[in-house]
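Deliverable D2.4 — example input (structure tokens):
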């Protein structure tokens, strides 16, 4: 239900610093010798990064499974290509230099088979030596259960978000997510809920084996979030960088 209301979802996450993020994408691309002309936003949602990317003159493709999200970004960013498809089964008309998936959305892949299918799609859509940036990969299992709340306000609309995650099935490494948005839209109140959203927790060594099995990518490393510094211990906020082989 929440994802059917892109405007409210976008306000809920309006604290994100897209300029800082795209600055880092440029830095990473330069370091690894990629001329970044085109980008793919996987599980884009309302694509908080889109405005900054397009402002800098890059070509942008937006990918999401939710039709309302795709309709929203098509209207808001007509210069970008928007595709309504599953991230485990999609094709692009033209390959891109840099792909990214934000806010831990990689966990919405529910099985190792689906993850391999996802890597196959990513391999076909990235140019050789192209980079794939994965934000907030869940590294921890022991302390993964948590609940958080925050409030954002924009253009007279106030959104309070509650996010909760619990372990659902240990053997299958499946988590249960719940999210609630409490909205005050110029005095009109609404409550949106997303529950029974099942996500997969892939462990770091498991990830390495899956990447090796798929064969088209090399793992550059696990990094502190938006820093060129390899992780030495668990960090909830992190990023992973993959590079497509020649």
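Example output (designed residues):
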């Amino acid at each position: 239900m929440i994802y059917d209301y892109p405007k409210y979802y976008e306000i809920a996450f309006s604290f994100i610093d897209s300029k800082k993020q795209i600055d880092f994408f440029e830095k990473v691309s330069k370091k690894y010798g990629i001329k970044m002309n085109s980008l793919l936003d996987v599980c884009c949602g309302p694509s908080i990064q889109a405005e900054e990317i397009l402002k800098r003159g890059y070509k942008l493709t937006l990918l999401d499974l939710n039709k309302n999200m795709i309709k929203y970004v098509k209207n808001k960013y007509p210069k970008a290509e928007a595709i309504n498809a599953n991230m485990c089964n999609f094709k692009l008309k033209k390959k891109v230099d840099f792909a990214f998936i934000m806010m831990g959305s990689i966990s919405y892949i529910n099985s190792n088979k689906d993850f391999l299918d996802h890597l196959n799609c990513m391999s076909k859509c990235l140019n050789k030596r192209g980079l794939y940036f994965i934000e907030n990969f869940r590294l921890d299992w022991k302390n993964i259960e948590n609940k958080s709340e925050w409030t954002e306000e924009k253009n007279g609309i106030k959104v309070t978000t509650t996010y909760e995650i619990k372990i659902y099935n240990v053997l299958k490494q499946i988590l249960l997510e719940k999210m609630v948005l409490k909205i005050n839209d110029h005095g009109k109140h609404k409550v949106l809920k997303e529950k029974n959203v099942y996500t997969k927790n892939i462990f770091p060594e498991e990830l390495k084996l899956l990447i090796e099995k798929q064969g088209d990518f090399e793992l550059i490393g696990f990094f502190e979030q938006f820093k060129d510094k390899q992780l030495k211990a668990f960090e909830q906020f992190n990023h992973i960088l993959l590079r497509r082989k020649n």
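The first strand starts at residue 38 and ends at 42.
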